[in-house]
Amino acid sequence: KTPLKQAATSHAVLTEIQPDCQPLTTPPKPKEILPADPWTPTSNLKMLISAASPEIRSREQRRELSNTTSEVLQAKHCLQEHLSGDEYEKSQPSRKEKSLGLLCHKFLARYPDYPSTAENNYICLDEVAEELNVERRRIYDIVNVLESLHMVSRLAKNRYAWHGRHNLPKTLQALKKVGEENKYTQQIQMIKKREYEHEFDFEGERNEETTRSFGSNEHSEMSFVELPGMEFRAASVNSRKDKSLRVMSQKFVMLFLVSTPQIVSLEVAAKILIGEDQLEDLDKSKFKTKIRRLYDIANVLSGLELIKKVHVTEERGRKPAFKWTGPEVLPNIQDTKLETTSTSSPPPISESITSKEQCSKNLFPSRGKQNFTRHPSLIKLVKSIENDRRKIQSAPTSPVKISPSTDQNLSAFPSKMAQVPAIAKHQLEGQSKKAKEMKTKLSRSALECNLSSPEVVPKPEPPRTAAPSPQSALPQPLGACPPSHGSVSPVILPHTHSGVSYAIYLHPSQAHTVTTYSPSFMLQPLPCANVTGIKSINSKVLNKVTTEEGDNQIATDDPTQSLTAKERPPIKSEASSQRCLKRPQALQENNLIKRFKSDEESLDTSLTFFPSGYLIPLTQCTHGNKAGFSNKEKAGICSLQHTTYSSPLAGVIPVTAPELKAVNIPDITPLNIMLSPTSIAAAPVLSNSSLNSSNTSPAPNPSSSVLNFTLQHVGLIPAGVQVPASPVLQHVPVSSQPENVSHSSENVSLQEEKVRKNRLRLLDRGGLSGNNFLSSLQPSVPKEPQEPQTVTENFFRTPGGPNTVSSLSANSDGTDRISQGTLYIPQRKLEVSED
DNA sequence: TGATCCCGCCAACGT
DNA sequence: ACGTTGGCGGGATCA
């Protein structure tokens, strides 16, 4: 196939495609020549020599920074140094030339990292495939992972929109958060521990136990994590089985983001990923398949320069692994900007139950253990929902707005606050709508009960701005644009704080109603993170990660740099509110019951579970597109959009009572929280934890009126009932720096800086730091040794037995403590080497 | 050899 | 019924 087509098509294509790159467009495009050859199996040389279409090349060049992987190198060579033919030692069309990594590079070269909003960068799969001379199948692989990072989103059938790295920061944050919530860190530990045990003979009981416990964790399947802006599209894509690549890719990334040395071995990753759907059965073939897939993903991620391949050498031998080289995840941005603390959030250890997790879990009761990912019945539900969503969105016709403004727009708006209203609105809409849909479709009695949304209008909410408005609290009418929300208006989102854990609870009265089941649940305190810090510290200290870098790009590769360097742009106003959606199903009592049980018990379950629902952060206005629109616009604009919002995906799924009940939101998890403020109040659980979190920002309290309104609106509470703002909410953490919070509107960069400083400060102080915290710092750490170093990994062991860990979560006092049982085992030494 | 991972069959989906 | 997506695993390459 290779040889065929080239030229003709290609340039045509180019033209079309062009839009994206600013630079490119210009030229007439010489094209003809270039395209094809290069990739043809035959020879790179040829391509190099011959064509070198200037345009493309330039593009490529600029985009490529260095990279890590050998592949990358090659790619580089090819691209950059076309002149010298020798570079290529291997000119043949060897397998490598066809590697996904290379292909990915080529693909990326076509589009700017930060496309301007103006142009819509559409991606036509067919065209791309042709141009690159690859089968479409391969393009899917690339696009799927890009999609997982929200760098592209699907518009319609053969089309995708290119967003570039604008969303990356947000996405990574979100992923990190979710990863933390899922306790990936712990899972990783678990796996390592297991291995460790294995090494020795422990096998016996201990193993079993471990395994068992481990198993319990697993499965959660969380689905695709979406970003505010892109939900729908993603959604459309989502539908299928979100099973693999996309989701897998996200999970994989999460692993990097949560692990302290930011190095993840394929083996561990595979196990964790497998674990989720099917635990224990370490089916060999399955494992193998997983690994294959991970390689695919890793190649793409490498192409994005987010990771690079390294080798970890343990006693046993050396295992392939990847090291994160992408941007540092800011703790939390946006609204949270400060809050970020997520970092601090030590969730890792603390096993607080994440509210979100819980919610999601509830959603999908999914099983306990069998292989079925979801309960069949649920699946149907889900599907139907998804379908709807899809239909709505995907309609080809539907104009998709692309990411347009995304960041830029946002940035334009001075205040985040502005977004708030929008958010609120969305939420409302979403909920109500969702409720409707649910009813309609599902007509689940149960749900209905809870959500009694009155109106079931087919066309859910026309753009009514009004919805939001009710929330008097907000300074501004929702509809209005952001303009000046001067002060910090009360942000609705509870979760925002970082570090601090929040418990979301319903007002008693409500609780009553709503939460029938879990009284106990409700108040559960969350463990905070602090403790974690300790651990992390240890590990950190102990571990030295060193990578051997190729001679070549050491500098470049250096994580530190990478972090700093690239993408910052976007950061600006990422708003982030987010919420998690949950699937309705949660309602089922069974689930609830189970949940309770588990919760009460030591949660082992909770430990590992992941949220199964879709996490859809509504948040901030979706960046760009949606966000960009002023509220008015939105309102005015098309119903379509609304639809979008409200669509199940986007929207908030009506939360059923059970979910509402007590949600603990551990750190900041914007994403998760879907429930929203609306229905819940958030209370920071621990003050001390707050300390950690550098920012303790005072959380804006949702105004009670808003809450009430919302709740009522949703039907969660009777009209008459009022939920007072709880004092708890008020609780203002002693923040070291209130300012951060308050000025959320300020420009991000500054804030970031502040945050960073704060962190440092905290550290200096000897503050506690969460793992994340440390990790975040890490980059800043002076240098990364270039020689291979040995990394020590800590394993913790729980003398008490596997469950020990989980027990942690139980603390009610809110204080975190480390479980006594947990010990860190000395450590093994690992050596990380780059290829 | 074991690590990588390309290739493309073919099922699930959408239209 | 046909086209698009994309799971999946054989088996070729690479190191």
Automatic annotation (TrEMBL):
Residues 20-40, 333-357, 427-482, 548-580, 776-818 are annotated as: Disordered. Residues 339-355, 466-478 have a biased composition (Low complexity). Residues 427-440 have a biased composition (Basic and acidic residues). Transmembrane segments: none annotated. Residues 95-164, 240-326 form the E2F/DP family winged-helix DNA-binding domain. One of its GO terms (cellular component) is RNA polymerase II transcription regulator complex. Keywords: Activator, Cell cycle, DNA-binding, Nucleus, Repressor, Transcription, Transcription regulation. It comes from the Eukaryota. The keyword Chaperone does not apply. Residues 553-564, 787-818 have a biased composition (Polar residues). InterPro entries: E2F (IPR015633), E2F_WHTH_DNA-bd_dom (IPR003316), WH-like_DNA-bd_sf (IPR036388), WH_DNA-bd_sf (IPR036390). Coiled coil: none annotated. One of its GO terms (molecular function) is DNA-binding transcription factor activity, RNA polymerase II-specific. Pfam families: WHD_E2F_TDP. Its main location: nucleus. GO terms for biological process: negative regulation of DNA-templated transcription; positive regulation of macromolecule metabolic process; positive regulation of nucleobase-containing compound metabolic process; sprouting angiogenesis. It is found in: Nucleus. Belongs to the E2F/DP family. This is Transcription factor E2F8.
